[in-house]
Amino acid sequence: MKKxxxxxxxxxxxxxxxxxxxxxxxxxxxxTQPDKALNRQKKIIVSPLKEFALKNNITIYQPNKVIELLDxxxxxxxxxxxxxxxxxxIPDKILNLFKNCINVxxxxxxxxxxxxxxxYSLMNGDKETGISLMKMIKKMDAGDVYVQSKICIxxxxxxxxxxxKLSSLAYQIVKNNINQIFNNEIKPKPQDESKVxxxxxxxxxxxxxxxxxSSIQVHNFVRALSPTPIAYTFLENERIKIKxxxxxxxxxxxxxxxxxxxxxxxxxxDKKGIIVATMNGYIRILELQREGKKMLESSVYYKQQNCFxxxxxVFK
Length: 316
Prior knowledge:
This protein is α/β, with parallel strands linked by helices and 316 residues long.
């Protein structure tokens, strides 16, 4: 039986591991990121892959740096390494211990090398994305590609929906191809370096909405960051999270005041939500959250007395 070590962290990394188990491979152990303390209560958050491993009695390692496990890996004498969104670079000293090292990447490489390919595909308004199985090398996501599989992106998919779609696709592409890859029956092809784009992890300041963009760009940005980490803006110096928006169709009847609006200016509040001006039109906010409050549907502010949010105010 071929012996595998598996590295991953977020939810999308669970299904490929399930595929390897269903194919009968021996999973020696999994490697995932260390637990994190989240929020003011310092609640400990474990990775989805760790949760899966605990339920399935799989040995777990959580090194700060994977090189710490060098002796452990050597003693196990594994055949293959499979990774999916692990979140750390794996040095050559580790990669060279395996017959082959395969990465499951959530984009159609060479597009979106990096840690946030799903978010960038949504931000850019792409109509399709997919999963690539690639040979791991030291350079980030630059290895030769064995196989790819595509799916469509719908207009209102957010990153939660798209991650779910890609997780299912990742299961299928691993289950259908990994045996042939390990047996050298599929030959990898080099990536086209002229078409390379990058999807680096977003910093906190990059999660702020830029209202000086088109309506479709604002909508794509919000759905790219929903349900987590959630895009934000400011209103009267208060940080407001915006979880869900909707584009306003050309044939939708709206009674808009005849005036020039600034990008980010609140135009009106109706039964469906909050209408905000953008660079080239309007967008409807459907769900938002004030600091220290729960996420609410924006329609609750319709005809609310002494509402904190009013037409004429400007998101910045």
